[in-house]
Design brief:
The protein is α/β, with parallel strands linked by helices. It has four domains: 4-18 and 175-326, MoaB/Mog-like domain (Molybdenum Cofactor Biosythetic Enzyme, Chain A, 3-Layer(aba) Sandwich); 20-43 and 139-173, Molybdopterin biosynthesis moea protein, domain 2, CATH 3.90.105; 48-135, Beta Complex (Molybdopterin biosynthesis moeA protein, domain 3); 337-410, MoeA, C-terminal, domain IV (Beta-clip, Beta Barrel). It is 16% helix and 30% strand. The protein is built from six helices and 27 strands. It has helices at residues 4-14, 156-164, 203-213, 228-238, 258-263, 308-326, and strands at 20-24, 37-38, 48-49, 53-56, 70-78, 92-96, 108-111, 121-124, 134-135, 146-148, 169-173, 177-183, 187-188, 199-200, 217-224, 244-248, 269-273, 276-277, 281-286, 300-304, 337-341, 345-346, 352-362, 365-370, 389-393, 399-400, 405-410. The strands form eight sheets. The protein has a six-stranded mixed β-sheet with strand order 15-12-16-20-19-17, with helices on both faces. 42% of the residues are buried. Bound molecules: adenosine monophosphate and magnesium ion (MG). Adenosine monophosphate is lined by residues 182, 184, 186-187, 199, 201-204, 248-252, 254, 305-308, 379.
């Protein structure tokens, strides 16, 4: 049996970042930025008004008050978007709107609330100190200042900063091309009636949806029986078109485990027992010739166990970091939070437990309870509907008691994550 870290290290050692594409910002949403970006523009690009009001020479209004207002001649009207830079002489002002460039001759803005709002002349009832209500060019970023580092995720905030800094397009990692193959002669399409012994194929949806949530482009989603020849045909059709192929089922010690039967002899894919529960049997490797042309880099292959909770955990622990690394993400593992167990539960001896869990965040802190009320089990697919994350319990712990502090990982889609 090997440790989870050993298996993950093997996976990450193979997951070199994919080449990048330059795409319009809108198409970059949720993707990983492949270059370190410095600002092209000063932010803001122009010294501009922070208020609707009047651009003035501050010395003209230094004495202004309710009882001794100052009257100035209004010589220009400056809406947002104007390029005008009118000369303002002593005794003059320009009406100005938020965001409009401040004339070079003005050094303060009097908010409209401190005036009578006049259009030809304006009466001002409060002083304005030099610089007040003015946003200086470059106060946020100067051209050349660091903006976004390579490996960060292009969430909404990053995209808005990039757009403001002068970019219309950005370099992002290519999406990993992923295919999913579910194996099992018992599987039927979701929604189909079941004969005795059959079950709906839920892993295809589970794994393909998770892959998309973690930045993948789906090449194909295939269901095959436990006939080795059928699996072989499916793999041959996909090997040269994918960066990653995720198989589920057929990796254990059974008599009809086609993934192991087909892929273990060449040793391109290694089958390990990993000290985790669920998810003990794991296949991982890279296909080479004869699956792909000699010299061509074949896809990474994951052979995940078929039980739905096992497949889910295995994806989250091994495939997800792999997809992130292929996209050049600077963070590939999830942050763990400490949570208080709402109830107690049993854990397996000698293996680290990954328990589908309901994690609640309240003002009082974070709490966690098993998603499956009636105990844990890798077949309890219905309980996945209640999981919004998982608890990670060390191999040395035999039982979690109510009130214990345990480590949890909350699930978020990477496409939304600000990693
Ligand atoms: P296996 O890893 O092939 O031995 O499968 C272990 C268990 O997971 C069996 O009970 C299978 O019926 C179930 N299983 C395998 N593949 C799927 C799938 N695609 N969807 C739902 N359950 C599956
Ligand atoms: Mg099977």
């Amino acid at each position: 049996m090997i440790e989870v870290e050993t298996q993950l290290a093997r996976v990450l050692a193979e997951a070199c970042p994919l080449p990048s594409d330059t795409v319009p910002l809108a198409a970059a949403h949720g993707r990983v930025i492949a270059e370190t970006v410095v600002s092209r523009y000063a932010l803001p690009p122009w010294t501009n008004s922070a208020m609707d009001g009047y651009a003035v020479r501050s010395e003209d209004v230094a004495s202004a008050s309710e009882t001794a207002p100052v009257s100035l001649e209004v010589i220009a009207d400056l809406p947002a978007g104007t390029a005008a830079d009118p000369v303002i002489l002593p005794g003059q002002a320009a009406r100005i709107m938020t965001g409009a460039p401040v004339p070079a001759d003005a050094d303060a803005i009097v908010p409209v609330e401190a005036t009578d709002g006049g259009e030809l002349r304006v009466t001002i009832t409060a002083p304005a100190a030099p610089g007040v209500h003015i946003r200086s060019a470059g106060e946020d970023r100067q051209p050349g200042d660091a903006l976004v580092s390579a490996g960060s995720r292009a969430g909404a905030e990053v995209l808005s900063a990039l757009a403001s800094a002068g970019f219309g397009r950005i370099k992002v990692a290519r999406r990993p091309r992923v295919a999913v193959i579910a194996t099992g002669s018992e599987l039927v399409a979701p929604g189909e009636p079941l004969d005795r012994g059959q079950i709906p194929d839920s892993n295809s949806l589970l794994i393909s949806s998770l892959a998309v949530e973690h930045g993948a482009e789906l090449v194909d989603v295939v269901r095959v029986s436990d006939e080795v020849a059928e699996l072989e045909t499916a793999l041959r059709g996909l090997a040269s078109r994918c960066d990653v192929i995720v198989l589920t089922g057929g990796v254990s010690m059974g008599a009809y485990d086609p993934v192991k039967e087909l892929l273990s002899p060449g040793e391109q894919v290694r089958f390990e027992k990993v000290a985790m529960q669920p998810g003990k049997p794991q296949g991982f490797g890279r296909l080479a010739a004869p699956w792909v042309d000699e010299g061509e880099l074949g896809p990474l292959v994951f052979g995940l166990p078929g039980n739905p909770v096992s497949a889910w955990v295995s994806f989250l622990v091994f495939v997800r970091p792999c997809l992130r690394a292929l996209q050049g993400a600077s963070t590939v593992e999830d942050p763990k939070l400490s949570a208080h167990a709402d109830v107690g539960w049993r854990t397996p001896p000698g293996r680290r437990q990954y328990l589908p869990a309901r994690i609640r965040t309240t003002d009082a802190g974070v709490t966690v309870s098993p998603a499956a009320a009636r105990g844990s089990g890798s077949h309890l697919v219905g309980s996945l509907a209640d999981a919004n994350g998982y608890a990670v319990v060390d191999a040395s712990i035999e039982r979690v008691q109510a009130g214990d502090v345990v480590q949890v990982v909350r699930l978020v889609s990477d496409v939304d994550a600000r990693l």
